[in-house]
Predict the structure.
Amino acid sequence: MSGTAVGSGAAEGKARKRSRRHALPLAPDRQRFGAPHSYSFILPVLGRTSIHRLGLMATIALMIATVTTGFVMGGHVGTTKDKAALAVAAGLRSIGFRVSEVRVTGAHQLTVPELFERIGLNSTLLTTLGFDAEQARRKLVEIPWIKTASVRVLLPGTIDVAVVEREPFALWQRDGRVNLVDREGGIIGAYEDERFANLPVVVGEGADKRVVEIRQLLDLHPLLRQQVRAAVLVAERRWTLKLADGVDIMLPEEGVQDALASLIRIDGQSGLLKRDIAAVDLRVANRVIVRLTDRAAQIRSDALRPRARSATPASPPPPVKPSARTI
């Protein structure tokens, strides 16, 4: 009886220890998997059984990789690293770590095949455990169109790619080359697509860094903005607006808004910009200087000649000599 009781008590003690072990709460994810990185492997929350299953699959994958590497290093399979990589990839894919889904968000100007080619997602032997998410992210942000990127691996078979693209804001011309630039003046690429033909054009050294300034100025005057073909930054100090009909509007360095508002008011009253003029000079404060085209200047000169002749006083008649009289 005493032996039975002792045995029964020992069994109950082991059971209590087991129940206490299983009753321990799970540690937070940060403690189990380490501190978070710029990329992460995220386990789907499917319950303890799924997590245990994934852990078992990872263990098996590690065993396959170890055994395969041993065979290769020992000369049983081959001596090249490529053979080892192929063997390991095949093993991982066979137990469920194949890439079954790729999610891409935020890509509008770049196509999905272009993204896949850039980060190596077009390989048929790709596995989620063998995919380097951080390296893929670095390759994506090297693309001029992409401002920021995020790449995550979601085990067992999903890769999530999210990008934020640069927005074309203007066309910048310098040294005969035209590039797309964003709001900050960052070059996106060469202008080759007619979809961006309606973007404002800025010309000259430093104009790329001041595209927001000139665009906001022209947005205040929509009717004038429609006539502007390009804005040229002169000596990185002031703007000259090139209108579609060939008229140049020379803006001052300071007081640009007031000068342009004055021109718009005068144009509304007299239709100045519709006349045969070559340039409007606003560089001097409170003055509007207009330069006519050569044709208009010649017409004006010809028109002024008759006036000049008619305004010249006539010479007095010669005196009349008295006629001789014979007495």
Observations:
- The chain has ten helices and 13 strands.
